[in-house]
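User: quick one, fold this
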Amino acid sequence: MISCTEYLIANRVTHPNLLAARGTSAGGTLVAHTCLNLRSELFRAAILEVPFLDVLSCLLDESLPLTLTDHLEFGNPIADAKIYQAIQSFSPYENLFQKEYPALYLSMQYSDPRVPYWSTLKFIEKLRDLSLEPKKQPHFGSNNIVCKINKDGGHFGSAENDTNLSGLVHQFAWLDFLMLENETNKSQSKNLKS
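Assistant:
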């Protein structure tokens, strides 16, 4: 993902101020780790839907409904120290530190059996504590973090297609607003310099 992003920027297909990434569930793990932990300077924004962010804590808790199944995919950090270290190295929650992060839109399902709501809220709390005051996107929100909590539906969204489409519309409207705010800030900066 990083190589593809660097290629797009190097070939002037896009620019870090115009680049957003979106990931769902385990794809949210990839996007969060790439956009927030590894190379946050390459991205303007990230959209995470029902993201698996607190991977290590969830895989250490065998009382969760999918932990044993997830051990087949990720490995068992309880039984193997090397697997523990490997999961810790990419778990987005474990790799947050104090810096400016890209703007972040999180969408979570309150009744999600795969990604517990408390793990997403735990991630948001830590991110807010560690996020520096945004300079790329000042005054956009509480450290540029927006969280949409859906009370109806599960990990795969709602049974109602209109509800799922409405969620996508919110995400794209948020991105549009983010880019509009960027243009407004640029115009204000130019006016101050003149």
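User: anything notable?
Assistant: The chain has seven helices and four strands.
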